[in-house]
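This section describes the prediction task in plain terms. A model, or a person checking by hand, is given the sequence of a single protein chain and must write out its three-dimensional structure as a string of tokens. No templates, partner chains or ligands are provided. The sample shown here is typical of the held-out split.
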Amino acid sequence: MPETFDLTTAVYAKTAVGQQEIQTRSLGLSPLVRRILVLVDGKRSGSELAPFLSGNGDIEEILGQLLTLDCVEAQARAKLVASQAPAAPAPAATAANEGGESSSSEIPGLPSAGSRSAKDNEMARNFMINSVNSIIGQNMRVSLVHDIFHAETTEQLRVVYHAWASSMSNHGMGAKRLPELREKLFKVL
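The expected answer:
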């Protein structure tokens, strides 16, 4: 990503710090800034988030604050468009890096995505959603559950896996159980 970019056209996703802030409120964000952080979903650009301010603030200022606090990160729109399936939205993370580098969906030790069946995908999707709901709590990671639910392919599930693992590791019980959960998930992911 270039050093300078238009804050209103960039697409934003929550970082681990941002996800933690949603739970703990430890940074003392104003209600308006917190509202925008909650609405960041890895699919909306700054200009798409602006209407939620109801004229009460400057979206560029708020996004700048969230970027400075490392609560959100900007993502390249071209990468997002390339990773989306035509029938359904893809998870927020990108499926491939530029320059032929390894994909963010690659997870060491797993067989190729093509070797997994539709049943494996369904089992992985259900496992990820159930573990988020039971360990972190229902309605605590709605955007993550949404991304998992809409990940139709193994490749898309592997992209959203990183957000799942991050959410689990940022939760006390999730961090303790992550090695066990990861081992079970990797049997079908």
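For orientation: The longest strand covers residues 11-14.
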